[in-house]
Amino acid sequence: MIKRLNNNVASVSVNENGGEMISFKSLVSGYEYLWNGDSNYWTGHAPLLFPIVCAAKNREIKIEGQKYTIGNHGFARGSKFKLVEESENQLTYLLEYNDETLKMYPYKFKLYIKYLLEDNKVTIKYTIENVDEKAIYFSIGTHPGFNCKFTESDKLEDYYIEFDQKETMNRLFMNGNNELINGQSELVMEDDKVLYLKKEMFEKGAMVFRNMNSKEVTLKSKTSDKSVKLSYDNLPYMGIWQPEGAPFICIEPWHGIADHDAFDGEFKEKEMIIKLEEKGAYNTSYSIEVK
């Protein structure tokens, strides 16, 4: 089932499958900012990545010596969420652990996604509650895709990403299994706030960055006044990705990262893993503001 939030300037649509936002549209210009999920390129729109970001080594995680098979970006994006709260400008969805999740990830949890629409901004809040009898571990990430057709004739080279802080960024690379290639990186931006996009950047897959200083990034175009601003909390890593020839770009703040290709440790030893004590709650959020 799909639910919709509306006000005088924008509308948001959310699917119970994945608890995923599938549309963010300006009611002033009629422009759709979110990718439509065309399977020729990528079936996602703005999925949640949980309990891992990117890939686990050999698609397995090891917990207390036992191995569990888990797919790329985890299972939340393919799970059916339950709508638990609805108001004029807000939707809240819940995913609870179940027999299927325990086969992939042997921790008991509740995962809430709350959407709040205010004017031309949607805020997405995530809450993870530990309902297990021990500490649990996880990563969490975002994966929104934004249309790069602010004007119909736009090409990727018309677009750039503006950061709110000066950044020096070394790009990390991933192999065909979506695992980090240990020790391989490339400087793509030095003491600057602007990253100009070009298709050659993505010939070797997604660009992955550690330890961002910025708390806001804005997708802009040389050809239009339209823009998309992402503001985020406690998501210091980032992926930027475009499938070959696709008319959209994904800008993905994360708290987590793929395993590197030589990793052989326990799940709790993963880079950027979050530890949540028994009866604890973890909160993070990001917002998308369009112009």
Keywords:
291 residues; mainly beta; Beta-galactosidase, Chain A, domain 5; nine-stranded antiparallel sheet; six-stranded antiparallel sheet; 1 helix; 22 strands; 50% strand
Question: How many domain regions?
Answer: 1
Oligomer: single chain
Which secondary-structure class do the elements indicate?
Answer: mainly beta
Could you give the order of the helices and strands? EEEEEEEEHEEEEEEEEEEEEEE
In short, what is this structure?
By secondary structure, this protein is mainly β. The chain is built from 1 helix and 22 strands.
Give your account of this protein's structure.
The chain has 291 residues and is mainly beta. It has one domain: Beta-galactosidase, Chain A, domain 5. Helices cover 2% and strands 50% of the residues. It has 1 helix and 22 strands. It has one helix at residues 99-104; strands at residues 2-6, 10-15, 20-26, 48-49, 60-63, 66-69, 82-87, 90-96, 109-118, 121-130, 136-138, 140-142, 145-147, 159-174, 180-196, 207-209, 216-221, 227-233, 237-241, 248-255, 274-276, 281-290. The strands form 5 sheets. The chain has a 9-stranded antiparallel sheet with strand order 7-8-9-10-22-18-17-14-15, with no helix packed on it. A hairpin with a 2-residue loop joins strand 7 (82-87) and strand 8 (90-96). The chain is globular. The relative contact order is 0.19. The mean pLDDT is 97.
Question: What is the fold's blueprint, element by element?
Answer:
Blueprint: E1 2-6, E2 10-15, E3 20-26, E4 48-49, E5 60-63, E6 66-69, E7 82-87, E8 90-96, H1 99-104, E9 109-118, E10 121-130, E11 136-138, E12 140-142, E13 145-147, E14 159-174, E15 180-196, E16 207-209, E17 216-221, E18 227-233, E19 237-241, E20 248-255, E21 274-276, E22 281-290
Antiparallel strand pairs: 1-2, 2-3, 4-12, 5-6, 7-8, 8-9, 9-10, 10-22, 11-21, 12-20, 13-20, 14-15, 14-17, 16-19, 17-18, 18-22, 19-20
